[in-house]
Recover the amino acids of this structure.
């Protein structure tokens, strides 16, 4: 009991299991949920290992007093396997029993259809039709005159010109760089989503980086990579010794500003502009990805 209390004391107070919010798995697991957000969500395995299950949970952006809303997309779980294993035992038994019942129902319908399709169709005798006999003495009909009315063309009408309204241009935010695209000349970084089978060495070779630079920029340590994890990749010869730690943030559908993002992560708005190659007062379109240096 004492050991369980020590594990709970070191972990985030808002982490809990999907079926029991008061307990949690002490390792990254699909059943662990974040109960700090509006709707409990599964947490990415790498985020659980870095923050939720360690004494660093207070550094999580969701755990800050100013945070409201759902769990950010970058922190949501990407687990795809093991869903059958996490179903309740009664649910699994019910699903297993449904299989033979469904097979029996399909077989019964097929037999019934075969009986209907195989039954002979009754033949009906053809009904005799009357034949009209035309006498040879009948004189042919006399043709009548047909008057053809030709349409008269109406005089052409002159269309009245309709004034065309001049279009009014509204300013649109400039979309940011996409995944695997360098943010800008002043910020040699890009955001990469980990795919199945990738390793740190493969990612570093692909983007002209190094394993040490990627590990330092993302504070990975000895943590494993998880599919769909978002990594900050320093491209080229970047000195990462004095770099801050980074978080990845996606602008929500309702939009936001640099000042609001800086307040959410408790960091300097000017640093966000520098690392994301943003101008003063530039709008942030919905869906844009940002790298956010820690404060």
């Amino acid at each position: 009991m004492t050991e369980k209390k020590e594990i709970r004391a070191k972990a985030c107070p808002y982490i809990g299991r999907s079926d029991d919010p008061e307990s949690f798995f002490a390792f990254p697991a699909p059943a662990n949920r974040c109960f700090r957000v509006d709707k409990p969500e599964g947490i990415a395995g790498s985020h659980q290992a870095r923050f939720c299950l360690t004494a660093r949970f207070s550094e999580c952006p969701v755990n800050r007093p100013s945070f409201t809303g759902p769990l950010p997309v970058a922190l949501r779980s990407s687990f795809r396997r093991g869903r059958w294993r996490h179903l309740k035992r009664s649910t699994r038994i019910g699903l297993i029993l449904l299989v033979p019942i469904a097979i029996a129902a399909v077989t019964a319908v097929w037999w019934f259809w075969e009986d209907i399709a195989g039954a002979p169709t009754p033949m009906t005798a053809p009904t005799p039709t009357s034949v009209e006999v035309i006498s040879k003495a009948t004189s042919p009909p006399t043709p009548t005159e047909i008057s053809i009315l030709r349409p008269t063309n109406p005089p052409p009408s002159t269309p009245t010109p309709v004034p065309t309204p001049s279009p009014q241009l509204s300013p649109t935010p400039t979309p940011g760089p996409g995944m695997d695209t360098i943010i800008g000349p002043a910020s040699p970084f890009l955001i990469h989503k980990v795919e199945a089978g990738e390793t740190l060495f493969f990612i570093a070779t692909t983007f002209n980086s190094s394993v040490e630079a990627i590990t330092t920029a993302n504070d990975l340590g000895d943590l494993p990579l998880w599919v769909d994890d978002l990594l900050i990749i320093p491209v080229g010869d970047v000195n990462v010794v004095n770099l801050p730690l980074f978080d990845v943030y996606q602008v929500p559908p309702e939009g936001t500003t640099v000042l609001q993002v800086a307040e959410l992560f408790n960091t300097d708005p000017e640093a966000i502009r520098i690392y994301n190659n943003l101008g003063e007062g530039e709008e942030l379109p919905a869906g844009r990805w940002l790298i956010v240096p820690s404060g």
Q: What stands out?
A: Residues 80-86, 130-138 have pLDDT under 50 and may be disordered. DSSP finds seven helices and seven strands in the chain. The helical segments are 2-10, 45-52, 89-118, 200-206, 211-218, 258-265, 269-275.
